[in-house]
């Protein structure tokens, strides 16, 4: 048994609207996932750069490497694709913050390095 002719005419094109809405929802979800994944990657890249920069600054502070602590930290941060946002050396402990830009924002991660047992 087929539906009434007036009902079939009213439903013409409803599949197209449903398909367009499905495509739009998938596109929005995909874009959101890509943005979040990119921010996550930028945060991890900043963390890696901050760790390397803090270790390099601490190496200079304890005399294992020549140069100036924050200059060495900046070099290592840039080598890892980040910028050095902050650098402070107190004795043999180095505290740095590295940043990586992403989508108009900046992912910043702090790191600390020094000899074992230092507060």
Helix content: 55-70%
Poorly predicted runs are: none
H/I helix tally: 3
Tell me the overall shape: rod-shaped
Main β-sheet description: 3 strands, antiparallel
Tally the beta strands: 3
In the sheet with the most strands, the strands line up as: 1-2-3
What structural class is derived from the secondary structure elements?
alpha+beta
How confident is the prediction overall: mean pLDDT? 91
Distance between the termini: 82 Å
User: What is the N-to-C succession of helices and strands?
Assistant: HHHEEE
Radius of gyration in whole Å, from Cα? 27 Å
Q: Tell me what portion of residues adopts beta-strand conformation.
A: 15-25%
Can you tag this structure with a few keywords?
single chain, about 120 residues, alpha+beta, 3 strands, rod-shaped
Summarize the structure.
With 119 residues, this protein is of the alpha+beta class. It is built from three helices and three strands; from the N terminus they run αααβββ.
Description:
By secondary structure, the chain is of the alpha+beta class. Helices cover 55% and strands 23% of the residues. The protein has helices at residues 5-10, 14-62, 69-79; strands spanning 83-90, 93-102, 105-113. Strands 1-2-3 form a 3-stranded antiparallel β-sheet. Strand 2 (93-102) and strand 3 (105-113) form a beta hairpin. Helix 2 runs antiparallel to helix 3. The longest helix is centred in the first third of the chain and has 49 residues, at 14-62.
